[in-house]
Structure prediction request, 255 residues.
Amino acid sequence: TSGSNNKTANFVNNLYKTIIKAGTYKVSSIAIAEAAKIIENSQRDLNIAFVNELSIIFEKMNLDVNQILTAAESKWNFLPFKPGLVGGHCIGVDPYYLTYISKKNNYNPKIILAGRSVNDGMSDHLVNNFLSNLKKMKINIINSNILILGCTFKENCTDIRNSKVFEIYKKINKYKCNIDIFDPLADKKNVFDEFAIHLINYPKKNYYDAIILAVPHKYFIKLSLKKIKNFTKKNSYIFDFKNIFKNKLKYLDRN
Prediction:
């Protein structure tokens, strides 16, 4: 916490102390408070970018990145980040504030922008993987029925701001397929107002040629893989790129 002067800083700090169980940490200026917030979000962005890059490398080597990360987590000081899409109003945005002010102060940041580049490119990478594997399964993307499970920017929240799932939707939708999005946590009106997309109430049985498990809501885990498979046709593809079901799906899945 902080404020524009000592009196304000003390007032703000004492106010937040009454509601923040973890406690507060008062600093000497608003700039320092904002900078602390920005670097914390930028640090997470870079850590996710690192595992996203690892996932691309190991995929080219035909190695399962999820098994590798699980093994790496056995070391006590390993930081357990997972590959995936980075959206939202903090991690996907704050690094750009930092790089903007950095350039304004005559320094071109390299590592922060490299991380942003990797994370911003993940939707393209995942769509390319998805289309490539449909082709291997001999599923024609044109006129196919695709189900996307989850559209919020992260699991177990209702926030759709800067969600990269809608980027995936737009990229796949170019191929003249029929796409449904199901997310029991997202507000249907907000999604329509923001993206002109109607969320479905519940997926149809035996209907979809492919499913993208985009957001690992507890709802989907509780729903179970068996019930999710009931939404698909016989020859279908389930793309669980967040590894929601912990390696229970092969990369190419035939029902």
Observations:
- The two ends are 53 Å apart (CA to CA).
